[in-house]
Amino acid sequence: MPTLPSLYISHGSPMTALQPGATGARLTELAQALPRPKAIVIASAHWLAHAPLVGGAAQPDTIHDFHGFPPALYQLRYPVPGAPALAARVMDLLDQAGLAPQIDPQRGLDHGAWVPLRLLYPDADIPVVPLSIQPELGSAHQYALGRALAPLRGEGVLLIGSGSITHNLHDFRAGYSAEREAPYVRPFIGWIEQKLAAGDVDALLDYRRQAPFAQRAHPTDEHLLPLFFALGAAGDGAQAQRIDAGIDLGFLAMDIYRFDDPATVTSR
């Protein structure tokens, strides 16, 4: 089986599940372009822990980790199987890297996992292992987490980081819209695209100091950290392809990134 790319997906609001818009269209196209994975490991911005936690449930629940949304959203399920054997393999790789993982035998899929996966693979027939992120340990740690799991890409496992390329929920009340975008969004996403295209990992890991409007785009880190997981999982020299899925509500950039080995890009 060919080595799979790694992905970073901006999952947006939970309402993306009911109103997929451009994000749904881009994810459908992406799934059609990818080799079918044997399994998926997904690191979501909505599972935070002090140490790497690996979901080992045989049948992970669909977690509705939000409130105040339409009743139809709470009726949605993503009844995907888990992969306990893969979870054990993930544990082993993280342990070998000195990252001190722990297993969570009950963890389900939060909306940062099941919303984009439901758009990518609506049949819910590809086993999924969720993985936590550790916001207090920073971007370099998350990059190391991805690097530790990079061998799985050659074993038919799709590695995904799920967050949001910009994520400042304070701006819900700022009056932004499709007609009036927040002024920081495009400079920030342009900087990310430029540094990924240049392979400037050091600058990306130091985005807090170097990226324009970093504090406005991300008052806290957790929604960008999955990008570093996907980047680390891509391996050295991987090429980044930005997939533009628009800007939701005028301030939530919905960028998707696909990271491929250079040889794979050449052959496509």
Automatic annotation (TrEMBL):
It comes from the Bacteria. The keyword Zinc applies. Keywords: Dioxygenase, Metal-binding, Oxidoreductase, Zinc. The keyword 4Fe-4S does not apply. Its cofactor is Zn(2+). GO terms for molecular function: dioxygenase activity. Residues 31-236 form the Extradiol ring-cleavage dioxygenase class III enzyme subunit B domain. Belongs to the DODA-type extradiol aromatic ring-opening dioxygenase family. This is Dioxygenase. It comes from Rhodanobacter humi.
